């Protein structure tokens, strides 16, 4: 995932989490405001009391979601690196096996042609011109 996509995903998760918390805990915040209505003189004090009591839940939820996103990103990166390493290993193994088969084929053709050096040069030259690969 590109850094831009990660940023968009993180922002979307934060917006979703905040809206979910407002929808799920909005009634609790309003209850706290109404509970402390007589004891506070201003809206700021009432809202502050409500947010102190319910803000802990919002903070805890944001920590859990943020930590989960970070851990998920870490494990996805580790898994991606492992898959890349396996792919490179399999590709190298395949290339070695193909080279061994190619060498065995050249040796068998050289034996059929009669001379090991002479036959190898002819077969390698034919192979290189046909495939576009330089001879070894």
SS summary, helix count: 3
- Helical/strand content category: mainly alpha
Helix content: over 70%
Q: What string gives the helices and strands in order?
A: HHH
Average pLDDT, rounded to a whole number, is 76
Keywords: Membrane, Transmembrane, Transmembrane helix
Transmembrane segments: 50-75
Structure description:
The chain is mainly α and 136 residues long. It has a domain at 3-36 and 63-113. 88% of the residues lie in helices and 0% in strands. It is built from 3 helices and no strands. The protein has helices spanning 3-35, 43-113, 116-131. The protein is rod-shaped and about 110 Å long.
Give the arrangement of secondary structure elements.
Layout: H1 3-35, H2 43-113, H3 116-131
Helix pairs in contact: 1-2, 2-3
Short précis:
With 136 residues, the protein is mostly helical.
Fill in the keyword field for this structure.
136 residues, mainly alpha, 3 helices, 88% helix, 0% strand, membrane, transmembrane helix, transmembrane
């Amino acid at each position: 995932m590109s850094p831009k996509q990660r940023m968009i995903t993180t922002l979307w998760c934060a917006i979703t989490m905040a809206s979910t918390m407002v929808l799920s805990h909005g009634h609790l915040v309003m209850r706290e405001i109404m509970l402390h209505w007589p004891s506070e003189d201003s809206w700021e004090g009432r809202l502050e009391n409500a947010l102190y009591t319910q803000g802990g839940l919002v903070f805890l939820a944001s920590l859990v979601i943020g930590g989960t996103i970070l851990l998920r990103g870490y494990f996805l990166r580790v898994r991606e690196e492992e898959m890349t390493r396996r792919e490179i290993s399999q590709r190298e193994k395949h290339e070695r096996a193909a080279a061994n088969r190619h060498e065995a084929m050249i040796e068998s053709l050289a034996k059929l042609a009669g001379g090991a050096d002479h036959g190898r040069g002819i077969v390698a030259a034919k192979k290189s011109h046909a495939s576009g690969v330089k001879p070894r």
